[in-house]
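Internal tracking record. Fields below are filled automatically when a chain is submitted to the structure queue. Please do not edit lines marked as system-generated. If the sequence contains nonstandard residues, flag them in the REMARKS field before resubmitting.
Queue: standard
Priority: normal
Entity type: single polypeptide chain
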Amino acid sequence: MEVNLEDVIKTEQVAMQESLAHLQKELTKIRAGVASPSMLDGLMVDYYGTPTPIAQVANLNTPDSKTISIQPWEKGMLANIEQAIFKANLGLTPMNDGEFVRITIPPMTEERRKELVKQVKAAGEDTKIALRQTRQKMMDAVKKETKDGYPEDEGKKKEDQIQALLKKYSADVDALTDAKEKDIMTV
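SYSTEM-GENERATED OUTPUT FOLLOWS
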């Protein structure tokens, strides 16, 4: 029985780590006033009728801290890339010069910074909800095993171990969101 419970805890702990990794990825998409190709992650471009990630149809560079340069592998893709950026509503304006699409990152207003901080906090809270759901799965497994004859004191130790895992990952979420918030609010 204990091996089964350990497997459940290990499996769900991996799920907690994946939730944290997902948060890190989402936070890189939220811009903090500095240009980064990761701001365009998830942007899909119409490539001959098929939605394709922008990184698969163009080369993305940051020549300086305020500019993203997009060089498509086919010149015919310039208009499609421009349209995709407009449709994504990223708050960015692409400029097409016939060879490149350049995006200049505008300086952020105080209002925009506060909006981004709200997005960061919402992403952090979503991750905490996922962590609590994962904890609940583990707790349910412990309660089921205890009901099926697993020693109660051992079950209580497992529950304490699970709660400690939740606290650790929640603290990691807080640290990530606080660091991103500080990054955004720094002028």
